[in-house]
Design the sequence.
């Protein structure tokens, strides 16, 4: 509503006064997004609500809570509202993000001049000029051999740095920022820089980048190499492996049977009433059975040992699969209490 003293003025003059009232309201943050004509009406309404709440928080001295509100308001209108950006710049200044505030002040100053908003442009320009001597800057020193690398890219914080700005002292907000330098075929170089709250310049020397070490999949895994010309597991080698397993089992069986025979022999000396050395027994059946079992264990043990040796020889000397693709192999092995039989027959 217009002030009462403007009601009786001529129509054209009332329009001028109305415009001044609206501009004054924009400066106070009541309709900061009215000039964003192309914005979605719902988005503009949400932006106005967020802006009003953010400005209220800022006026109460709660800049930490105000800045997210103002950021959301500016984002909703895609940064077109200069009033919103100017308020956000003030908020950034309050929370110590001087570089961000300086950047926004400069942006608003340039755009306000083109938009014919002289007072807003003057305010933004004054804010930028006041902040400039307080800024802390970061200057990168990039050696020529790094500059010439293909695909070279440098990021400072969350933003990429254009090649033309690599040697420029760039304003940065106080706190810690990560510098990341990458290039094709090179390992990424990273460094964390602490930006002081006082004015000054921090110089960062970028070193020569190291070559990327490429480890192919499986290169570090141990493998059993096959002989040239075919698969390692040929038919003969499988036969040798089976014979080796059979022989190993037979050797174990022989040892087990021998242990039983020895125990039975000791029991037979007692149960047969045997005395002396060599023993003379009233009943020799017990020790005779134990001796027979011992003979069987000896046969199984040495038969298994022979089979194991044959298996090792066949396994070690067998050609690869490609060389024996048409060579049939027959393996026979049997284990019993009296004898171990094993054989390999190869038909060419």
Sequence:
């Amino acid at each position: 509503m217009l002030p009462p003293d403007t009601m009786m003025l001529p129509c054209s003059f009332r329009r001028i006064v109305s415009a001044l009232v609206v501009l004054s309201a924009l400066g106070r943050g009541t309709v900061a997004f009215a000039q964003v004509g192309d914005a979605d009406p719902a988005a503009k309404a949400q932006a106005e609500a967020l802006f009003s709440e953010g400005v209220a928080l800022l006026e109460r001295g709660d800049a930490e809570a105000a800045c997210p509100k103002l950021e959301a308001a500016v984002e909703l209108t895609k940064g077109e509202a200069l009033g919103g950006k100017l308020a956000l710049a003030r908020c950034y200044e309050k929370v110590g993000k001087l570089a961000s505030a300086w950047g926004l002040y400069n942006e608003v100053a340039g755009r306000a001049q083109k938009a014919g908003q002289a007072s807003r442009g003057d305010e933004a320009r004054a804010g930028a000029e006041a902040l400039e001597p307080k800024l802390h800057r970061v200057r990168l020193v990039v050696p020529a051999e790094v500059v010439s690398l293909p695909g070279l890219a440098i990021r400072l914080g969350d933003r990429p740095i254009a090649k033309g700005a690599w040697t420029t002292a760039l304003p940065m907000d106080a706190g810690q920022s990560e510098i990341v330098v990458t290039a094709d075929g090179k390992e990424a170089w990273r460094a964390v820089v602490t930006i002081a709250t006082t004015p000054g310049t921090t110089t960062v020397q970028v070193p020569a980048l190291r070559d990327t070490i490429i480890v192919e999949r499986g290169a570090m895994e141990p493998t059993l190499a096959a002989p040239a010309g075919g698969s390692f597991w040929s038919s003969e080698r499988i036969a040798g492996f089976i014979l080796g397993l059979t022989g190993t089992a037979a050797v174990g069986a022989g040892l087990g049977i021998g242990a039983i025979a020895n125990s039975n022999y000791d029991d037979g000396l007692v149960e047969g009433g045997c005395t002396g050395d060599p023993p003379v027994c009233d009943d020799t059946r017990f020790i005779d059975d134990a001796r027979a079992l011992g003979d069987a264990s000896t046969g199984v043990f040495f038969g298994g040992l022979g089979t194991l040796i044959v298996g090792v020889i066949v396994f070690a000397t067998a050609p690869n699969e490609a060389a024996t693709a048409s060579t049939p192999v027959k393996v026979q092995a049997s284990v019993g209490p009296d004898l171990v039989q094993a054989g390999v027959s190869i038909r060419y």
About this structure: The chain has a mean pLDDT of 78. Residues 235-271 form the longest helix (37 residues).
